Amino acid sequence: MNEITLGDYTLACGDTGATITTRWTGEAADSQDKGINKAATAALKYWLLKTFLISTGDEDPDAVPAPESPPTLDAPDAEPSLFQKAWRDTPKPRPQHVEQNIAGFPPVYRPPLPAL
Questions:
Q1: How many CA atoms lie within 13 A of 33 on its CB side?
Q2: Are 8 and 26 in contact (CB under 8 A)?
Q3: CA spacing 20 to 30 A to 72: which of 18, 91, 104, 116?
Q4: What are the average pLDDT values for consecutive 10-residue runs of the chain, which has 116 residues?
Q5: What's the predicted TM-score (pTM) here?
């Protein structure tokens, strides 16, 4: 059974009495009767982690160096991808073909450019 809880958590300043309330949800799956408790615990746990930016001790994904980029076509031993081969082998229209294709359309309105 999947349980979802919704909790309002309030932070209060002891000196000024100012408060701020935030809403957070928790979710847990349990086939027994403890689903609500697990969901409430998860909601509080992740609210604390995210509100106070607490580290979980897991490895930071941004700290891991990026994998090496694949070889480019500039490298002498690089093999072109299937897309690059298809693009290279596709006939490109010459200017006269382009002019023939757009000859039947009305001219495009271009407003005059402002003087500099």
A1: 0
A2: no
A3: 91
A4: 89 92 90 88 92 82 66 62 78 56 55 68
A5: 0.48
